[in-house]
Structure formats: C-alpha cells, structure tokens
Recover the amino acids of this structure.
C-alpha cells in the first residue's frame, strides 16, 4: 500500500495547491505557451521522482514478498534444516534492519556508493554538467535517467497543450505519469504492480464520476469489459497452447484504460497496442536476434495506445476510417 499512499499524498497536495491558487493561476496560465512551459518544468521534476519509483518500487515489492514468504513459512511450515531456518530469518532481519522506500535512503551511485547531493540531482542539468559521470568515481551514469525526465516533461507539455488549464489537465497528468512509470517497470521486470494499475483504475472511475472524460456508466463498463476482454484471450491461449500468453497485470491495465475512456475506446486501444507491439516485437526479433519464445512486455504498448487515445481519439478514428476506406477502394478496383 506504500505506493498508493505516496500518490494519494501527491494528488492531495496538487488539489490543495490548485484550490489555493486557482484564481491567480487561471489568469496567469490562460496563455497556452506559459502553461506548457510551466507544466513542462514541473514534468521534469516529476520525471526525476519517477526514476526513483521505477528503480526502487520493484525492489520494495521483492523485499516485501521475501519477508512475507519467510514469515509464513516459519509459522506454518517450519523447516527442519537449520540452514533453511537461518536463511528465512535472514530475510526477515534484512527487511527490519534497513528502511527502504521511495524516500529513504538517499540516492547513491550504484558503483561507488557516493551519496547524491541536491546539486547533483537537478533534472537533466546535473547529468549534462557532470558529463554523464559520477563526480566521485567517474563511472558513467545511465542515459535513461535524463531521458525519463525529458520524456515526462514532453508528455506533460502535450497534455497541457491539449487540455488547457483545469481539472482535466490535472487528471491527465497523473494518468500520464502513472503510465510512464508502469511501462518502464514492465520493460525492466515484466511486471505491472497491482497498486499502480488498481490506483489508475479507481482514479479513472473517480474522475468520470464528475464526467471529465466520459460518463460514469461508460467508465464502469469500460473497466469491466477491459478486464474481461484480455482475460478471455489469455484463457483461450492457455487452452490452445498449454501455456500462459499474457500477464494478469495487462488485464488490469486495460481495465484501467477502459475506466478512463469508457468501453467504446477499448477496440481502438487493443488494435493500436497490438499493431505497435507486432511491429516493434518483430523488429526486436530481427535486430537484437531474440528468441521468438522470449516474453515481450505488452504493458508499454497498451500504455502508449491508451495515452494517445485519451488525447487524440477523434483524429485516430478519422485516420482509421480513411485507411479502411482507401483499402476498400483499392481492393474494389483491383
């Protein structure tokens, strides 16, 4: 529940700030250029925090799983071998000995353990100033950190440009940042944390209680049909081939997307995500020489399709209809 508490606190803080400064900011941010710049800078800061979430949250989950497993095993099925008992007790002791969450301990260099100071943690600027190297050991810093920060800023800027100042902007920003964090966690670990997918789902229903993106009825149906559609596909795949073809996190993510945009958006999201997944998956098989049986995370493709559909659903539908019309004409003539 830790991740929910952090994001709920962020949401509460953002809502409080919006309410306190609503009159002043609505006038100040009435100009779209100013709004995009302000939101883009804020996106850089959030991107820095997302880097922490992407790296630390899977580790936090693993530590919790290990501690729960050790506690349950020692209580219900205590092993006879002392070495097994010591190992399980060690897992519990490790969890209790060190506080590890999204805030504590301070960020360190993974190579030398150098504590990252505030000046070394300025989004993008610190990376460029230090020439992509740790100040202490001069080992290279992954380029993914500034790319996540820049990506967060660019996505936030697009959202601000599309929605303008208001409640829909705040909701769409949270939607965007959650999708970005979940996508990269899925790329790294082939895992979509329940606390993120379910938080996204309930936020979608909550936003549409006020009709921000669709009606409450369509939102609830979107959550239901979103989950059942991929669950059915996965069930049929397992029945036909005798193995799992899709993670359950994908069901929950599509349910969350349905909760934000309604059930009518689901066919296009599934079509877009499948198309992008097929193209990029084939490219990875050819370029990187991957085995065709290597699992490919589907979450990032769902996230990309859902995000694009939230902003440009009408344009995507028109483009789809034009392509279908062109193909129909071409096949008729031939």
């Amino acid at each position: 529940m830790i991740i929910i508490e952090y994001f709920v606190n962020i949401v509460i803080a953002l809502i409080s700030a919006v309410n306190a400064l609503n009159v002043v900011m609505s006038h100040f941010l009435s100009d779209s250029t100013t709004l995009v710049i302000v939101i883009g800078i804020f996106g850089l800061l959030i991107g820095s925090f997302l880097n922490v979430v992407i790296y630390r949250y899977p580790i936090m989950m693993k530590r919790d799983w290990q501690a729960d497993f050790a506690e349950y095993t020692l209580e219900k099925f205590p092993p006879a071998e002392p070495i097994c008992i010591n190992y399980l007790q060690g897992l519990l002791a490790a969890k209790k000995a060190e506080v590890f969450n999204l805030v504590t301990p301070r960020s360190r260099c993974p190579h030398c353990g150098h504590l990252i100071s505030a000046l070394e943690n300025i989004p993008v600027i610190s990376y460029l100033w230090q020439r992509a190297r740790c100040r202490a050991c001069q080992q290279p810093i992954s380029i993914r950190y500034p790319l996540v920060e820049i990506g967060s800023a660019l996505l936030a800027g697009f959202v601000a440009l599309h929605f303008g100042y208001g409640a829909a902007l705040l909701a769409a920003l949270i939607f965007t940042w959650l999708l970005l964090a979940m996508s990269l966690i899925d790329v790294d670990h082939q895992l979509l944390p329940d606390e993120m997918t379910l938080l996204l789902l309930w936020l979608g229903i909550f936003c549409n209680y006020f009709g921000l993106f669709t009606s409450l009825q369509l939102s609830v149906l979107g959550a239901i049909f979103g989950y059942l559609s991929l669950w059915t596909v996965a069930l049929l795949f397992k029945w036909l081939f005798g193995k799992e073809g899709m993670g359950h996190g994908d069901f929950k993510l599509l349910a969350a997307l349905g909760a934000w945009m309604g059930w009518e958006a689901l066919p296009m999201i599934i079509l877009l995500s499948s198309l992008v997944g097929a193209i990029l998956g084939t490219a990875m098989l050819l370029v990187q020489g991957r085995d065709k049986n290597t699992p490919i995370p589907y979450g990032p493709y769902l996230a990309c399709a859902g995000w694009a559909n939230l902003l440009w659903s009408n344009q995507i539908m028109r483009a789809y209809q034009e392509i279908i019309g062109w193909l129909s004409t071409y096949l008729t003539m031939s």
About this structure: The two ends are 59 Å apart (CA to CA). The mean pLDDT is 87.
